[in-house]
Amino acid sequence: MWLLPSLASASIVWRGDFETGNRSQYTGEQMVSSDRLLVVTNPVAEGKYALKVTVKQGDDPINASGNRNELVYQSGEKEGSEYYYRWKVMFASDFPSVDTWQLFTQWHHDGCCGSPPLEFYVRGEEIRMALNSNSTIPWRTALKRGVWQEFILHVKWSSNASTGFVELWHNQKKVLSKTYAATMYAGNKNYLKLGLYRSDTVKPVGILFHDGFVQATALSDVLDTTTPSTDAGTPVDAGTPVDAGTPVDAGTPVDAGTPVDAGTPVDAGTPVDAGTPVDAGTPVDAGTPVDAGTPGDEGTPGAGEDAGTSPGPQVDAGTGPTDESPGTGTGVIPPTSGVSPDDLGAEPAGCNSAGGSAAAVSLLALLGLARGWRRRR
């Protein structure tokens, strides 16, 4: 539960929480069939509806690299814009554990080719956040299956590494202080993709759930103030009222002539087991204690920071060409590969999810350069 002073409310920019009961809040879908992106009533993290995402090997709705089923929202983040995003994800109990990339949320550039500037993905038994402008993984944590996990991302969108920044909360706890980096590519806008996109080498079926996506201009507008259950694994049916005791028949007067034995306590009813908190039906990962003091901290996290999610080591920045060094004020261009795809054997493909030029790739092939291309949309 967030413990904050009263904050002025700002406008919510957009909701993609599926409370319409369908996918209409999004601009479009990239899916092989409607059962791959299914709006469901169970499980849900909040409200009445959530999105169930399924990906099977061979799912390739846009004839590009990897396998995917994703929703697209043309949010059009521009240079210099700044937003807070909050969404919740639950990975199925049998979600594949493979040593390759499985993206579940990404902000992609609207230009052709290369890895998205910012992405969240699973690799092996870790959840990672990647910034592909400088090929770094500023945050990672252990993968947990079968529980809802909340992400709040604060971003300043800029192709200038001294202007753009990211800041992250995971399960209502600040895990990444403001970190400066280029968060978009020069001359491009960003847009949201939500679902599951993974290497086509993954064989097992992948299932996860998304819920509660909201975009706003202030932290106060994306906070979930619902108090989570301390036992996220044992949800109680919130539709069954708790037995508050045996009601007394008010119509039967007490015989005032019969003295009451003061040594025999009156049965006040059946006591409620206070050790079993009532879960309103949404098992949020309550294993992470709430940091009540850090939500507004723009600097270094306090003592309550999750010590298990320290930023990972830098990845070799040579995985993709850039035209800037941090702080030079020059915008970056899309790298040909990011930190999440396999460095070797990444699937080459044309720029075709947005109508890019396949002829250009063919020309490069004739020049003997096509092998250097890597593509992820």
Write structural notes for this entry.
It is a single chain. With 377 residues, the protein is mainly beta. The protein has a single domain, classed as Jelly Rolls. The protein is 2% helix and 29% strand. It has one helix at 358-366; strands spanning 12-16, 28-30, 37-40, 50-55, 67-77, 82-91, 101-109, 118-123, 126-131, 136-142, 149-156, 165-170, 173-180, 190-198, 206-216. The strands form two sheets. Strands 1, 3, 4, 6, 11, 12, 13 and 15 form an eight-stranded antiparallel sheet that branches. Strands 2-5-14-7-8-9-10 form a seven-stranded antiparallel sheet, with no helix packed on it. A hairpin with a 4-residue loop joins strand 9 and strand 10.
Set down the secondary structure blueprint.
Layout: E1 12-16, E2 28-30, E3 37-40, E4 50-55, E5 67-77, E6 82-91, E7 101-109, E8 118-123, E9 126-131, E10 136-142, E11 149-156, E12 165-170, E13 173-180, E14 190-198, E15 206-216, H1 358-366
Antiparallel strand pairs: 1-15, 2-5, 3-4, 4-15, 5-14, 6-11, 6-15, 7-8, 7-14, 8-9, 9-10, 11-12, 12-13
Class of secondary structure makeup: mainly beta
The radius of gyration is: 25 Å
The overall pLDDT average reads 73
The total of beta strands comes to 15
Q: Would you list the SSEs in sequence order as H and E?
A: EEEEEEEEEEEEEEEH
Please, how many domains? 1
CATH class: Mainly Beta
What's the CATH topology label?
Jelly Rolls
Shape descriptor: globular
Largest sheet data: 8 strands, antiparallel
- Helix count from the secondary structure assignment: 1
Oligomer: single chain
